[in-house]
Amino acid sequence: MLAFASALFRQGGAAVATATLVIVETGLLSLPWRLPRLDRSARSFWAETLCGLIAPGGALIVLMLTNHDLATRLPDWWWFGVAVVVGAALLAVSGINVLAIRSGLLAFLMGPTPKAQGRARAFYTAVGPLGEEALFRGVALTAAPVAVTPIGLLAAVAFVARHHVPPGDNGRGTARSTITEITAAVLLLALTVLSQSLLPALLAHVINNVPGVIIELQREDTGDPHTV
Question: Pick from 18, 29, 23, 19: which is nearest to 52 by CA?
């Protein structure tokens, strides 16, 4: 993440603001937040979750001010069909059982989670793709329009690394999840470069994240004393 921020700094201009936000966010998410997570208050967990939106949210604002065409351009309609295929491919790579999600079995097997924590994770999983696409595809490609450049490659690596910054047990770190993240970094970057628009990659990213939103909401333990 810091290498990605350094590369953005060297681009100068509006990229400096994004680089600063990346450094601030990485520092905040690296703090020794109270562990184990299940013992944390709702306020603490929501604070950490919102810290994770600093760089993506800031990048979205920067992108809209400097290169909004990339964020709003409508590509040929068939790119959205490609995006659906990419999203489905990411779900296949992750190995998630869609039928088990629909029945609630997967959430049951994963066990209950405090209501506030489940809602915070569901919230970030739902809104995160927009900012993450702006940060790791939009701002990166604005700084270097060709994907196969140091900053383009760093953006792909940083996308994977960012999922592992928060301390504690966050459901990351398995070989399968890392492979899925790497696959997503490559496919979403390629989709953006080839379509010259963030929208197809955003659609694919959302498709990949929808099961996570559903599972977190299904896992809510309404009887938890720390819920809000």
Answer: 29
User: Pseudo-torsion of CA 194, 59, 55, 122, nearest 10°?
Assistant: -70
Q: Measured in Å, how far apart are the chain's first and last C-alpha atoms?
A: 33
pLDDT tens-digit series, residues 212-224: 999 999 987 644 4
| Other residues' Cβ atoms within 10 Å of the Cβ of residue 3 | 13
Spatial contact of 31 and 42, defined as CB atoms under 8 Å apart: no
Q: Residue 227: which pLDDT band, with cuts at 50, 70 and 90? A: very low
Residue-wise pLDDT for 106-126, tens only, equals 888 888 888 888 999 999 999
Distance CA 91, CA 130 (A): 18
Pairing of strands 220-221, 113-114: parallel
Q: Give me the chain's average pLDDT, please.
A: 87
Q: What pTM was computed for the model? A: 0.90
